[in-house]
Every structure is written in structure tokens, then in C-alpha cells.
Design brief:
The complex is a heterodimer of chains A (about 550) and B (about 450). Chain A folds into 2 domains: about 150 residues, 2-Layer Sandwich (PmbA/TldD fold); about 250 residues, no CATH class. Chain A is about 20% helix and about 35% strand. Chain A is built from 10 helices and 25 strands. In chain A, α2 packs parallel to α3 and α4 packs parallel to α5. The relative contact order of chain A is 0.13. Chain B is α+β, with helices and mostly antiparallel strands and about 450 residues long. Chain B folds into 2 domains: about 200 residues, PmbA/TldD fold; about 230 residues, no CATH class. In chain B, about 20% of the residues lie in helices and about 35% in strands. Chain B has 9 helices and 19 strands. In chain B, β9 and β10 form a beta hairpin. Chain B starts with 5 loop residues before the first helix and ends with a strand. In chain B, about 55% of the residues are buried. The chains are: A alpha+beta (about 550), B alpha+beta (about 450). The interface between A and B is large, with 88 and 110 residues. Chain A: One of its GO terms (molecular function) is metallopeptidase activity. Chain A: Keywords: Hydrolase, Metalloprotease, Protease. Chain A: It comes from Hymenobacter nivis. Chain A: This is TldD/PmbA family protein.
Chain lengths: ~550, ~450
């Protein structure tokens, strides 16, 4: 969907445009009860999948895979004292990908019958044959042994769709009331719930049934000073998670108190929506009179809920092998971390920087047992003691870096979208030595502590970036001395990671995440998490973002 | 099947409304048939086609509303869809923002549909032309061609009866030099696919790529810039003019949370916020960028002035906010026209003593909604201008700038070109703020 269409359909203001995936074409609005009805059983899906694979092979495919997808979503939107919208959607169909003489073809259908599936497989073969005209590099697929009939499910405690809508609405409206009581002028609260029921089969002999769950409660609180015309916002400190509704049951053992001198709380695998909304109401109001930052060089102490986005943009994206090779040159961009750059052995960051990819990380939104081309997922090193050691790859890229197997990074956001290489969960490893956030701050003479993700922008090769945040605090002579506003930092990837001074220990480790990582043409979204503990970066350039308009 | 004629669509919608027992009922059909081809590294990467059609039924009992959708149109499915919408409506809370459905409306007939739609072979040929041009010069092309036909039909039990069809084709290409040190970009969208010239656009991107080799670094700071249309407007991301235009929302301003909020309350409609050379309007009948006849609510679009000689003339009022404030609702426009002059970009360059030519801006995000401060970077062709001519390519830079400040620092406006369904002129701006250098090419 084009941005202008989306704005017209949703009536949402520009600030809400990071949410491109509200139900559009291909998603059917359904009664919430439908979200609990079972889809086709495994035996039925295997029959349908075999129809696709047989038709593709008969039509001349050397390889074929089929994804039978049932995608269920429920979104609840409220503002202040009212419910704005409750949307439940279902999307069901089949996508078939074939390889004919080294050329990919893809076709999809929402008519899930053996006849329609066979015709779609033939269409995919016809498209592959037509594409040969403009194909100069034949696809080389890394070998993949079939797994037979296997399954995987996100380890959740409570399916969010089983929770009555009234209970969700009551919770969101209560959060709104807490924020308004604490001084907010406005609050908009949303709850996103996703269940992907995916069945994958391929001519390699895999039949993989997966049930993937994700949840994301979030809000934006605004405080207004009518007299001066000033307004300030504070977003939720929650994260999208690969969890069920249990994420919304607060637990003190899953909370990390923020550093001394802040009221902040960090959340691990459980979130306290009501407490965070109340704190956000108070903090949004405080921001109206908070001191503006003096620009200059500061040591930054970055909370995991903030640092996750910087990891996403400056490590997750540049190590996607399709960008490195030039496949995203016309849209998302390429990468500074080319194969030649890697061969030089230059430092990506300081020795403190150890970054791993992990497609099975508990609680992460990117966790799946198998990817969308039937590869079992796992964990591997990307950066070791500051050196780039590996990339993020799929089956048709493995040979380019001399690897015999894929990393399992293939994903499609719908049965109707063709699968391609997407970012796995990419996380900074906590420091081995015991180090609390307060102890880290004790060592900082002139710095800023930043919590929560804000404005973000990075160039198309992932050198130069600028990040804002939600809450900023001045650090002077080892202590937090008070809040700051109008803070953004600018750096470039190698300089920034090279300035990584220390990382707190495992006890501070938390996940940041997004539902809406965008890539590809036509654009597809993907969900991904980034873990870290609070981390210190020395001597980073901070700008003041306050301006005056007439 | 995805594109129904007006007669067929209205007959189907009439049938659907016949099953309704609700106080108010509105049925809408949306369909489109599109195809695309994507290439990179001078080779096709993906190609696909998509046909979709769906029916949405909104049922209302008093102020309670429910919506259901389906994509099969046999009698049983249609009946079930209406019933489901009614069941959801009965369970829904009353909406405090209820506005009755629209009655009969009169619509303009914008020339928004053209007969030519590209076939898969024509798309592959366009990609091949683009690739071959680059391969012959040892350049590397990555591009995307996407287009097709869509239709919308609406009908309700208050007498609304609306139908429109439109066609659109988008093409963009990034050309890079073999050593990766030069990059150029070109983009276009057309109503009539016959008017798309992928070869000429690729040539333009190729020239920019070749011309941007050996870029020099200049000190970030305030510079006079010439922003080409692709640096001002984008169809798929936030842009300087797009963000400003879609930010003309009355409700957020009245609520005190927009750059158009007035000190002490209310909004800034009627105030002069920009240089007097700035005039922005929308016009569905514009032959170069025809718009929609109606918006998502069924409101008829018409020529509408947004900014006239620097003064904010109108803001976007949803039907609810208009009713609450006792003003007419604003039909949501499908695009805008920024009035321009007659000068080409080349002529704007000729009239510039010192400045920077910017082909494209990238990864623009809002930094402060209070002032509409945006940040982003130049990309795919940035050049230093001296004494009326391009002197040398320069390295990319990050900017931090507000389109409001930018449109107060307006030196000259060039001839508008179509981009993302809008008409956008190149602009010459003084004191555009760059804050850091980027090594990206």
C-alpha cells in the first residue's frame, strides 16, 4: 500500500506512519471468535502441498517449495476514554516458489483447492521460464536435506486471542486513565497480536508445521502547555515480544530498576502497562519544562530499549548479505561491510563488541524453528571481539561466501509474498564481568543516559546515523543530575562501535524489538528483536534539536 | 475479475444492501490487477502479478458500527458477510465520534484511467532495456517497475452511489558504477503506461552515476541548495513536502499537538507561515496528475487551495472533526500540486553563484513534531555548483531541517514535474542546514 493511500484510508497523522501493515488487500476482517477456530489439519495441508510440488515438478521445476499460510491478526486501538477500533483479520492462501534452470518463479493464490494450487504451481513455472530472458546469474541453491514431518510452536503460556476483548479494552482504558491522572493531555494505546500458522513443504522432503505468536502493547502520551503552545510526548517502554498474553502480567522478577536519579523501570519478559502509562504521563508533563541540552561530545550510557534500534540499523542491516551484494541498491540500499571490506580485517568495533545472530532466542519476535525455505534455525557469531566474522544469509547466497548451508534467514510476510533474506534477531552480548548500570555511570564524568527509542535515520550504506530517544538524563561526575530534552546523537557505525567502552552484565540484559522492519520492492515487513545490556560509548557527538518557527 | 465495470459493481452492491437489516449500511468493493518486475546486479531478481478484489460491508445500529469483508461473491457468502458485520456492530461500543453515512453526492470525472497497462512481456522488455543500457557502459542497474489498474465502488442505504477506476505505473532505477564509487537515481510515475520511458530514465540515472565519481568532501553547514523533485517528495516514505502536506490536519493542531497549533489554543489557519511564492493546491481534474473522484468516506473531491501565497488557506478536517467544529469536511486528496515557475533545473543551476544540487533525499524521519524538524541524507547524485555550473560531485551529507523553515528560505521555484501522484517543482533554498558528512555512495 502506498503511503498516500494509507493516510487516506486510516486517517492517521504522519507520526503514525511507521505502521504500514494495518489490514489491507488480502486480509479479511473476521469475528474475533474466528481467530480461535483451527485451520486445516496437517494431513490436509500435506495433501495440498504435495499437489503443488507434483504440479511444479511435472511442469519442469528442478526445485519447488510451497507455503500454506494462515495469518491471524487482532489490533485494539483506544484513546483517552474511548475505543477507537478493534480489528480482527484472517488471511489464508498458498505461495509457490519454483526453480527452473537456475531461475526463480513465484505465484500465489487465495483459492486453497488442489486444482487451484496445481494451476498456481504451473503459473510459477511459466513465470520462471519468462524471467530467463533477463536472468544473467543462475541461482545456486545450498543443499538442504529434508526433515520429514516436523513442527514448531512459539513457547507461549496464553494465546492472546483466548483473552476476551473486553478484558483487553479494560486494561488499555485503565492505562489511559493512569496517564491522564498523572498529567497527560492525550494518550493513544494500542495492542497488536499476531499468529502466523505456517505450513512449509519442499521437494527436498520437508513438511514443516509452525505456529508463531507475537504481541505488542504500546502507547504514546502527549502533554501540552496551551499557553506557550509547547507539546511533548513519551512513548511506551514496552517491546514487541514473541510471547503470549502473559507478557501483560507484571512480575517484579522481570523488572530492572533504572539508574539512581531516574524513575525508570526496564522490562524483560513481562511488562507493567499501567505503571509505565502512569510514569509516562508524569514524564511527558515534566518534559515541558526540562532543560535543553548543550551540544557537544558526551559519553553515552544507552539503555537496551534504546540501544536495540541502534544495533538494528548499524549492525543488523549492514550484515544482510543481499544488501552487501547489491540486491537492495534501488530501495533499502547497500552496505559498507562488503566482502572486500571484511577481507581487510578492519575493526567493526572495540574488543567489547560481541554480536550474535540467534533465530531461536526465547521471547524474541524473530524466533522460529525453521525459516520460510525450510532451513532449521540456530545461532551464529556476527562480530567477535570487534571483528566482523559472518553475515546473514539464505540458501541461494551461501555459496557466495563459501558456506555449504544457509543460516535460515528466509522470510515472507504473507503467503502471497515471495520469501527473501531478512534480518535474524541480532544482539550485543552482555559483559562477562559483573557491572551494574549505577556502577557504569559512576565512571562517567560528562555524559547522557538515554532510555527508549526515538527518531532514527541512517544512510543507505550504514555509515552515518542520527538517533533520538524517549528519556534523557545528564550525567555529571559519576551521577545522574537531572533530565534533559532536545537530544540526538550523530556518529558513524565504525566510530561508534569503536567507542564502545563497556557493557553491563547479564542481569541487565533485555530485548528491544520491532514488528515493522521494511525491505524489498514491493515492500515487505518483518519482525525482529535485538538484545543487549546497558552499554557505554565514549565521546559521541550530541546535537540540540530545538528550533524556532515563525 | 478483479476489475468490475460500474454496472456490475453497483448491481453487486445493491444485492448486498438488500440483505441488510441495519439502520445504516454501506458496501464497498475494491479491486486491482497489478504486475511488477524487480532487477539488480543487471539481472532480474523477482517478478510477480497480483489480482485482488474484496468487499467490505459496514453495518450500523445507532452509533454502533461493525465491518466485515469477504472476497467471494456467491449469495451465501455475501449474506454471511452482511450478517457478520451486523453481529459485530451489535457487540461494539457506541462510537463517540459517530457521523451519519453520506447521502447522494455529485462527483467530477477525473481522467485517472488510461487504456495502456503493461503486459508481463512489456515489463520484462523495459527491464531488459534498462539493464542493457547499463551493462554496455559497465554500469550496474537495480530497478523496480510496478503498475496496473484498480477500481473502487461504494453504495449505501442513504443513496450514495460512487465508482471510479484508475491506472498507475511506477518506475525507479538506481545505477551504480562498477567500483561502487558513483551512484545515480531516476524515478517516474504515470497514469498512462505508454508515457513511461524506462530507457530515458535509466540514461538519466546513468549520467548521474558517472558524474558522481570522485566526490569531494565539503564542510557541513548552511548552503544554498537546489532540491530536485525526488528530494522533495516520495511515494513510499516520509518526505519534506509530503510530511508537510499530510501534516495539515486540523484535529491535531486544535488539540495543541502539531506545528499548526496556535499559542493559547486553536490552529493557524489563515496565518502566513511560508514565503509568498508558496502556493499548494489539489485538483483531481489536473490532466498531468489526475486524482480520485472521491475519498475513503465517499466525499467528492474538488479543487482545493491549501497554501496560497504563503498563507495556510485550508486544513484537513475529518467528517467527525468538521461536524464538531461546524465547518465543512475536507475530502482527503490523492495528491497535491505545488505551483511553480517556468525554469528547468538546469536554468536554476545557471542562476546560482554557489550551491549544491540534490538529486534525492533518503531515510527522512521526524526529529521534533513541534517544529516539524526532519533529518535525512542526500543520496545518488549530489553536486557542488559554482558560477552557474556544476563544478564537481560532493560526498553525501546529513541534514537537519524543517520544511517550514525551508519554505521561508525560498529563492526560486522551477517547473513542476509529476512525482508520486503530485506535481512538484525543483526548489532553490538558501541556508539549508547540513550537520555531518557521510561516506555512503
Amino acid at each position: 500500500m502506498k503511503r498516500r493511500d494509507f493516510v487516506g484510508l486510516s486517517g492517521l497523522a504522519a507520526g503514525a506512519l511507521f505502521l504500514p501493515s494495518l489490514p489491507g488487500f488480502g486480509h479479511t476482517r473476521v469475528d474475533p471468535a474466528r481467530l480461535l477456530e483451527p485451520g486445516a489439519d496437517v494431513a490436509q495441508k500435506k495433501r495440498l502441498a504435495d499437489a503443488a510440488l507434483n504440479a511444479a515438478k511435472s511442469a519442469g521445476a528442478n526445485y519447488a517449495d510451497v507455503r500454506i499460510g494462515r495469518y491471524l491478526n487482532q489490533y485494539v486501538f483506544t484513546r483517552e476514554k474511548q475505543v477507537q477500533n478493534i480489528v480482527s483479520t484472517e488471511s489464508y492462501g498458498v505461495g509457490i516458489r519454483v526453480l527452473v534452470a537456475g531461475c526463480w518463479g513465484f505465484a500465489s493464490t487465495s483459492v486453497v483447492t488442489t486444482d487451484s494450487i496445481a494451476a498456481t504451481a504451473q503459473l510459477a513455472v511459466a513465470i520462471a521460464k519468462a524471467n530467463r530472458l533477463v536472468q544473467k546469474e543462475p541461482v545456486q541453491l545450498a543443499p538442504q536435506a529434508g526433515y520429514g514431518e516436523v513442527s514448531w510452536k512459539t513457547p507461549i503460556q496464553q494465546n492472546a486471542f483466548e483473552v476476551p476483548i473486553k478484558q483487553k479494552v479494560d486494561l488499555l482504558l485503565e492505562a489511559n486513565a493512569r496517564a491522564l491522572d498523572a498529567g497527560a493531555s492525550y494518550i493513544g494505546t494500542s495492542l497488536f497480536q499476531v499468529n502466523e500458522q505456517k505450513y512449509f513443504a519442499s521437494t527436498d522432503g520437508s513438511y514443516i508445521d509452525q505456529d508463531v505468536h507475537r504481541i505488542w502493547p504500546t502507547f504514546s502520551v502527549t502533554a501540552i502547555d496551551k499557553a506557550s503552545g509547547k507539546f511533548r510526548s513519551r512513548e511506551a517502554l514496552s517491546s514487541p515480544m514473541g510471547l503470549g498474553y502473559e507478557y501483560l502480567t507484571p512480575s517484579t522478577s522481570e523488572q530492572v530498576p533504572g539508574p539512581t536519579g531516574t524513575d525508570l523501570v526496564g522490562y524483560k519478559l513481562r511488562y507493567d502497562l499501567l505503571a509505565d502509562a502512569a510514569l509516562a504521563g508524569k514524564q511527558a508533563k515534566q518534559k515541558l519544562t526540562t532543560k535543553s541540552v548543550t551540544p557537544g561530545k558526551y559519553d553515552l550510557v544507552l539503555d537496551p530499549g534504546h540501544l536495540g534500534l541502534t544495533i538494528h540499523e548499524s549492525v543488523g542491516h549492514p550484515l544482510e548479505l543481499d544488501r552487501v551484494l547489491g540486491y537492495e541498491a534501488n530501495y533499502a540500499g547497500t552496505s559498507f561491510a562488503t566482502l572486500d571490506w571484511k577481507a581487510k580485517g578492519l575493526p567493526y568495533g572495540s574488543k567489547q563488541v560481541n554480536i550474535v545472530a540467534d533465530k531461536l532466542q526465547p521471547g524474541s519476535v524473530g524466533a522460529v524453528g525453521y525459516d520460510d525455505e525450510g532451513v532449521k534455525t540456530g545461532r551464529w557469531d556476527l562480530i567477535k571481539e570487534g571483528k566482523l566474522v559472518n553475515y546473514e544469509k539464505i540458501r541461494d547466497q551461501a555459496h557466495i561466501v563459501g558456506q555449504k548451508a544457509s543460516d535460515g534467514c528466509c522470510y515472507a510476510d504473507s503467503w502471497s509474498s515471495v520469501q527473501f533474506q531478512r534480518m535474524p534477531n541480532v544482539s550485543l552480548q552482555p559483559g562477562a564481568a559483573k557491572l551494574s548500570v549505577d556502577d557504569m555511570i559512576k565512571g562517567v564524568d560528562k555524559g547522557i543516559y538515554i532510555a527508549g527509542a526515538g527518531s532514527f535515520s541512517i544512510d543507505q550504506q550504514r555509515f552515518n546515523f542520527q538517533f533520538g530517544g524517549q528519556m534523557f538524563y545528564a550525567i555529571e561526575k559519576g551521577k545522574i543530575t537531572g533530565p534533559l530534552e532536545d537530544v540526538a546523537y550523530q556518529s558513524n557505525t565504525q566510530e561508534f562501535w569503536g567507542a564502545c567502552h563497556s557493557v553491563c552484565d547479564q542481569s541487565d540484559y533485555r530485548l528491544f524489538g520491532t514488528f515493522f522492519d521494511g525491505k524489498g520492492q514491493p515492500a515487505q515487513i518483518s519482525a525482529v528483536s535485538h538484545g543487549s545490556a546497558t552499554t557505554r560509548f565514549n565521546g559521541v557527538n550530541v546535537i540540540n534539536t530545538a528550533r524556532k518557527i515563525g | 475479475m478483479p476489475i468490475l465495470s460500474q454496472t456490475d459493481a453497483q448491481a453487486l452492491l445493491k444485492q448486498v444492501l438488500g440483505y441488510s437489516t441495519a439502520d445504516e449500511c454501506e458496501a464497498s468493493l475494491n479491486g486491482r490487477t497489478t504486475g511488477n518486475i524487480r532487477y539488480a546486479r543487471n539481472s532480474v531478481s523477482t517478478a510477480g502479478a497480483q489480482d485482488t478484489i474484496s468487499l467490505a460491508v459496514e453495518a450500523r445500529f445507532g452509533k454502533r458500527s461493525g465491518t466485515a469483508t469477504c472476497n467471494e461473491f456467491d449469495e451465501a457468502t455475501l449474506k454471511r458477510c452482511v450478517q457478520r458485520a451486523e453481529e459485530i456492530a451489535r457487540l461494539a461500543p457506541e462510537s463517540p465520534e459517530y457521523v451519519p453515512l453520506l447521502g447522494p453526492q455529485t462527483y467530477l470525472k477525473p481522467p485517472s484511467a488510461a487504456p495502456t497497462v503493461l503486459s508481463p512481456t512489456a515489463r520484462a522488455q523495459a527491464a531488459a532495456d534498462s539493464i542493457n543500457l547499463c551493462a554496455a557502459k559497465s554500469l550496474t542497474a537495480a530497478g523496480f517497475l510496478d503498475g496496473g489498474t484498480s477500481f473502487v465502488a461504494k453504495r449505501n442505504n442513504k443513496g450514495l452511489d460512487a465508482y471510479q477506476q484508475s491506472t498507475n505505473t511506477d518506475f525507479s532505477v538506481t545505477v551504480r558504477t562498477a567500483d561502487g564509487r558513483g551512484s545515480g537515481y531516476a524515478i517516474a510515475d504515470v497514469t498512462d503506461a505508454a508515457k513511461l520511458n524506462a530507457k530515458a530514465l535509466t540514461q538519466r540515472a546513468a549520467d548521474k552515476a558517472a558524474g558522481s565519481l570522485n566526490a569531494k568532501a565539503i564542510e557541513p553547514g548552511k548552503y544554498t541548495v537546489i532540491l530536485e523533485p525526488a528530494a522533495l517528495m516520495a511515494g513510499d516514505d516520509l518526505s519534506l513536502l509530503g510530511g508537510l502536506f499530510y501534516g495539515l490536519d486540523a484535529r491535531s493542531a486544535d488539540e495543541g499537538r502539531s506545528f499548526l497549533a496556535k499559542k493559547g489554543g486553536g490552529n493557524r489557519k489563515g496565518e502566513k507561515l511560508f514565503d509568498e511564492k508558496v502556493t499548494i493546491y489539489s485538483d483531481p481534474m489536473n490532466a498531468e496528475v489526475p486524482g480520485n473522484a472521491f475519498d475513503g468516506d465517499g466525499l467528492p473531491t474538488q479543487r482545493m487551495s491549501w497554501v496560497e501565497k504563503g498563507v495556510v488557506k485550508n486544513m484537513l478536517y475529518s467528517r467527525y472533526w468538521a461536524q464538531k467544529n461546524n465547518v465543512p469536511a475536507t475530502p482527503f486528496p490523492s495528491g497535491f500540486v505545488m505551483s511553480g515557475g517556468t525554469q528547468s533545473t538546469a536554468e536554476l543551476i545557471k542562476g546560482t553563484a554557489k550551491g549544491i544540487l540534490i538529486t534525492r533525499l533518503w531515510y527522512i524521519r521526524e526529529v521534533d513534531p513541534q517544529t516539524l524538524l526532519y533529518t535525512g541524507l542526500t543520496r545518488d547524485g549530489t553536486f557542488y555548483i559554482e558560477n552557474g555550473a556544476i563544478k564537481f560531485p560532493i560526498k553525501n551529507m546529513r541534514f537537519n531541517e524543517s520544511p517550514i523553515i525551508m519554505l521561508n528560505n525560498l529563492e526560486a521555484i522551477g517547473r513542476p514535474q509529476r512525482l508520486a501522484g503530485c506535481l512538484v517543482p525543483p526548489l532553490k533554498i538558501r541556508d539549508f542546514t547540513f550537520t555531518s558528512l557521510s561516506d555512503a555512495v
